UniProtKB/TrEMBL annotation:
<dbReference type="InterPro" id="IPR050638">
    <property type="entry name" value="AA-Vitamin_Transporters"/>
</dbReference>
<feature type="transmembrane region" description="Helical">
    <location>
        <begin position="237"/>
        <end position="258"/>
    </location>
</feature>
<comment type="similarity">
    <text>Belongs to the EamA transporter family.</text>
</comment>
<feature type="transmembrane region" description="Helical">
    <location>
        <begin position="207"/>
        <end position="225"/>
    </location>
</feature>
<feature type="transmembrane region" description="Helical">
    <location>
        <begin position="148"/>
        <end position="166"/>
    </location>
</feature>
<feature type="transmembrane region" description="Helical">
    <location>
        <begin position="59"/>
        <end position="86"/>
    </location>
</feature>
<feature type="transmembrane region" description="Helical">
    <location>
        <begin position="92"/>
        <end position="109"/>
    </location>
</feature>
<feature type="transmembrane region" description="Helical">
    <location>
        <begin position="116"/>
        <end position="136"/>
    </location>
</feature>
<dbReference type="Pfam" id="PF00892">
    <property type="entry name" value="EamA"/>
</dbReference>
<feature type="transmembrane region" description="Helical">
    <location>
        <begin position="173"/>
        <end position="195"/>
    </location>
</feature>
<keyword id="KW-0472">Membrane</keyword>
<feature type="transmembrane region" description="Helical">
    <location>
        <begin position="264"/>
        <end position="284"/>
    </location>
</feature>
<dbReference type="InterPro" id="IPR037185">
    <property type="entry name" value="EmrE-like"/>
</dbReference>
<feature type="domain" description="EamA">
    <location>
        <begin position="3"/>
        <end position="132"/>
    </location>
</feature>
<dbReference type="GO" id="GO:0016020">
    <property type="term" value="C:membrane"/>
</dbReference>
<feature type="transmembrane region" description="Helical">
    <location>
        <begin position="28"/>
        <end position="47"/>
    </location>
</feature>
<dbReference type="InterPro" id="IPR000620">
    <property type="entry name" value="EamA_dom"/>
</dbReference>
């Protein structure tokens, strides 16, 4: 369980740092771009990736390119959601992206659903709708609330799309580490090209913090994969533990560090989300 707890902590720390540094004048996209440099280097050494013998004809470069565009884009949406909607709602929305992934598994990949899994999906949809609707109606400033609701929805849908694409890549027989490493490298190159065109002046503080974020971002993935290896016979433990811990830690950090408040719709979303994850975990056993 130590691996799951460490992975969850890394995930929440990334969100905390993004929200904190945004308020201190750091450039979010510069940090996001450089985060993929350290993530790709760490991925290469951690998984001992062999990228020197990649087949040019058999590698689906279109898939890697799409993921390389989506990853920094969804990271930016995550930063905006943290800014406008707060950390606790953003973490819940990010974790409940699994609901859309499950729906894709049913409609695209033909996975069969049990009654318990259906209950989990329905509760998850209720949770995300409650959070997004509550965010759009909580305060009087409609423009900001609609914007925050949009970013929450982007985080929810974006992480689900990335999850489905990664599942699709694994079904093609690609090695996970090679695909992940090439995606990180491509995301870094595309982000740097975008920055070179739009922001010619880069600040060392953004580069430094971006490299740190990349380390935490990769640690989250590496520890999560390692936990699945350790609990390979009971993946539901990893699934449930990761999602519930991130939601709880996200809520606690939002309340304690950023003085966010849980109101009616957020409470409904939080409780529904945790019960949904428990139902899905039980259904996977």
């Amino acid at each position: 369980m130590e691996l799951i707890a460490a992975a969850a902590c890394c995930s929440v720390i990334v969100s905390i740092l993004l929200k904190y540094f945004k308020t201190k004048g750091f450039d979010v996209f510069q940090m996001i771009a450089w985060n993929y440099l350290s993530a790709s280097i760490l991925c290469f050494y951690w998984f001992k990736t062999d990228i020197t013998h990649v087949s040019l004809s058999q590698t689906p470069w279109w898939l890697i390119f799409i993921l390389a565009v989506l990853l920094p884009s969804i990271f930016l949406c995550l930063a905006k959601s943290l800014q406008y909607a707060g950390i606790l709602k953003t973490e819940i929305a990010q974790r409940l992206a699994v609901i859309l992934s499950l729906l894709a598994a049913y409609f695209i990949f033909g996975e069969q659903f049990s009654h318990l899994k259906l209950i989990g999906v329905v509760l998850g949809i209720v949770a995300i709708l409650a959070i997004i609707f509550g965010q759009a109606t909580e305060h009087s400033n409609k423009s900001i609330n609609l914007k925050s609701a949009l970013f929450l929805f982007s985080v929810w849908a974006g992480y689900a799309i990335i999850d489905v694409l990664l599942k699709y890549s694994s079904s093609l027989g690609l090695q996970f580490a090679v695909t992940l490493n090439l995606t990180f490298i491509a995301a870094f190159v595309l982000s740097i090209i975008y920055l070179a065109v739009t922001q010619p002046h880069w600040q060392p503080k953004n580069i430094f913090m971006g490299l740190i974020l990349g380390g935490l971002n990769f640690a989250n993935i590496a520890l999560y994969v390692k936990a699945h290896m350790v609990f390979k016979e009971t993946p539901a433990i990893v699934f449930a533990g990761m999602n519930i811990l991130v939601v709880i830690l996200g809520v606690l950090s939002g309340v304690v560090l950023f003085k966010e408040r849980l109101k009616g719709y957020t409470w409904l979303g939080l409780v529904s989300g945790i019960v949904a994850v428990l139902c899905l975990a039980r259904a996977m056993m």
